[in-house]
């Protein structure tokens, strides 16, 4: 005999919308505490939930929230990701300018990207609304939604799409996409994201920082990263890790123009994890001699020195020490680099930087 909760799960498909909304609302907490109730009868409740995301907005809100929470379960996650019609429906709904649950759909997409097979989204196509001014590629549409924020849909800021991008860029195919100029607008996608490294949203800043770092694993694209005529990433990485400290004139004038004469109220990013991510991106970029020389040319060292001194976080300080060791070592041509003050015991050794995989499953 089914329990009361199991009966509640069955009521989600009741013909009466008032019954459906009550059932869905009451089931939200159980999607976290008792996910197995949605796995009975060979995942029949999951099948129903996937259909119900097209229900009335007040019902769909709870349905999508339940799916966001249930996607933390590996079996359910794989079921969702492997359902092409379901994924296509999410992509169709999220680009509707008046979609009231667009933020929740962003969260769901971000969670689905935890599955490696979700990289197939890179090949999805659909017709965009005229308001979006994008092409028929789903990933381009999502990037353009992210850039427009609430100017496109008053109900959504699309911040969680940054987590989607971060997880997608664990895959080489996605990294290649983000550094390739797109035909429809002539823009390199990563340049659309870089402007958000100092955004007010912690979620957006973290997701963008992780995306940039993951894309930086594509070593052949490093010349594009440091070129002022291409991606020009350095100002957008260095500004978030720079505070209001004063440098002597000689140090300051050698820095990038954007880093010179900053206002006295300039604040370093408040999240040490984001700072660490940016420093590790610089370390990844230092893989090539060309990039190392550029980092030296624009005097990155004083910024890293001050970051190390002022951010009391062991992981940040460790990343700073590793970067300093790389920048200040003698190169193969025998030309020594300028002497700098020691930051302490450097722990670079044989350690390797791993791609970002720390954005947790979102629960609502």
TrEMBL record:
<dbReference type="InterPro" id="IPR007205">
    <property type="entry name" value="Protein_HGH1_N"/>
</dbReference>
<dbReference type="InterPro" id="IPR039717">
    <property type="entry name" value="Hgh1"/>
</dbReference>
<feature type="compositionally biased region" description="Acidic residues">
    <location>
        <begin position="353"/>
        <end position="364"/>
    </location>
</feature>
<feature type="domain" description="Protein HGH1 N-terminal">
    <location>
        <begin position="94"/>
        <end position="276"/>
    </location>
</feature>
<protein>
    <recommendedName>
        <fullName>Protein HGH1 homolog</fullName>
    </recommendedName>
</protein>
<feature type="domain" description="Protein HGH1 C-terminal">
    <location>
        <begin position="281"/>
        <end position="333"/>
    </location>
</feature>
<comment type="similarity">
    <text>Belongs to the HGH1 family.</text>
</comment>
<feature type="region of interest" description="Disordered">
    <location>
        <begin position="331"/>
        <end position="364"/>
    </location>
</feature>
<dbReference type="InterPro" id="IPR007206">
    <property type="entry name" value="Protein_HGH1_C"/>
</dbReference>
<dbReference type="InterPro" id="IPR016024">
    <property type="entry name" value="ARM-type_fold"/>
</dbReference>
<dbReference type="InterPro" id="IPR011989">
    <property type="entry name" value="ARM-like"/>
</dbReference>
<dbReference type="Pfam" id="PF04064">
    <property type="entry name" value="DUF384"/>
</dbReference>
<dbReference type="Pfam" id="PF04063">
    <property type="entry name" value="DUF383"/>
</dbReference>
<feature type="compositionally biased region" description="Basic and acidic residues">
    <location>
        <begin position="331"/>
        <end position="352"/>
    </location>
</feature>
């Amino acid at each position: 005999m089914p329990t009361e909760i199991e009966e509640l799960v069955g009521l989600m498909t009741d013909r009466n919308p008032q019954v459906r909304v009550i059932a869905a609302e009451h089931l939200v907490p159980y999607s976290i505490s008792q996910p197995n109730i949605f796995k009975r009868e060979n995942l029949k409740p999951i099948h129903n939930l996937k259909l119900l995301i097209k229900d009335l907005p007040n019902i769909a809100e709870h349905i999508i929230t339940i799916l966001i929470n249930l996607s933390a379960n590996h079996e359910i996650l794989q079921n969702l990701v492997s359902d092409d019609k379901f994924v296509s429906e999410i992509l169709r709904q999220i680009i509707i300018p008046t979609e009231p649950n667009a933020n929740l759909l962003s969260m769901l997409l971000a969670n689905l990207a935890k599955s490696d097979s979700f990289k197939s989204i890179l090949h999805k196509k659909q017709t965009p609304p005229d308001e979006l001014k994008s092409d028929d590629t789903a990933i381009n549409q999502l990037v353009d939604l992210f850039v427009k924020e609430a100017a496109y849909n008053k109900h959504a800021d699309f911040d969680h799409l940054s987590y989607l991008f971060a997880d997608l860029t664990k895959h080489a195919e996605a990294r290649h996409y983000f550094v390739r100029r797109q035909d429809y607008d002539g823009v390199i996608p990563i340049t659309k994201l870089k402007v958000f490294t100092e955004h007010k949203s912690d979620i957006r800043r973290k997701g963008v920082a992780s995306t940039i770092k993951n894309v930086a694993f594509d070593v052949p694209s490093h010349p594009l990263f440091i070129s002022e005529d291409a991606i020009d990433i350095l100002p957008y990485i260095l500004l978030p890790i720079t505070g209001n400290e004063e440098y002597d004139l000689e140090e300051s004038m050698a820095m990038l123009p954007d880093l010179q004469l900053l206002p006295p109220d300039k604040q370093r990013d408040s999240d040490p994890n984001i700072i660490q991510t940016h420093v590790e991106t610089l370390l990844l970029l230092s893989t090539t001699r060309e990039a190392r020389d550029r980092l030296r040319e624009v005097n990155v060292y004083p910024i890293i020195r001050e970051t190390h001194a002022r951010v009391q976080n062991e992981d940040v300080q460790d990343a700073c020490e590793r970067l300093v060791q790389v920048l200040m070592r003698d190169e193969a041509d025998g030309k020594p680099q300028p002497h700098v003050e020691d930051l302490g015991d450097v722990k670079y050794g044989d350690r390797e930087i791993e791609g970002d995989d720390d954005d947790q499953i979102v629960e609502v």
